[in-house]
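One thing: mind reviewing this one?
=====
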Amino acid sequence: MQPIHDLKRISQLEEKTEGQHVIALFLIKPSDEGADSFLKSINYFHHRAGRYCSLYALGYSDSPDEACRDVKSIPNAVDNRDWYYSDACFIRTMEALGRRLKNWRYTGTPEMIILQNNPEGSSALCFAPYYRIDLFYGLKKGYIDDFNRFMERFIQACVAQIDAQSAVKAMEMRRLQPRRILVETIGACEKLPKPVRSVLGDTAFIRTCRG
């Protein structure tokens, strides 16, 4: 998990990262309902994701000098280091993201944007396709039983796909399949209220754009 207050910073970090992996962008403000669960788990997610997926929290910084003026301290966020959150930085980064994502509008509640990196391309980020998950809506409808369980299953699915890809040398340069990761993540919910195919078809929960 990395704090991001400038979208360009993601590209800079991804240019230094080797191999293919999934990227998840989190639009979760400290004032959002249920945000405490996210903030308390930042350090765990940071270490759990490892090389298998890159997680970025928008609107956050690990230095108060880098953040905007309206900073809120997040004590001991990662490795006993404080993070800082700014609504102004969040809005600026969210608007920059909106200029990159086709047919996307921020809902105002917690969201997760899933992309993949593009190590062989001119840009380090691949925005087509992308998947937008409305976390608040998913929790309300029962598609997500618990945020931490959802994230653990998501990371496990990323690990399984990266390991499977690396095990077959001929497949190493093929693109990852974020949709399969979502199917495994959501399908593992023990109390899913409807078949996973129907859940994936609920565009209020998951919206896909292939560019």
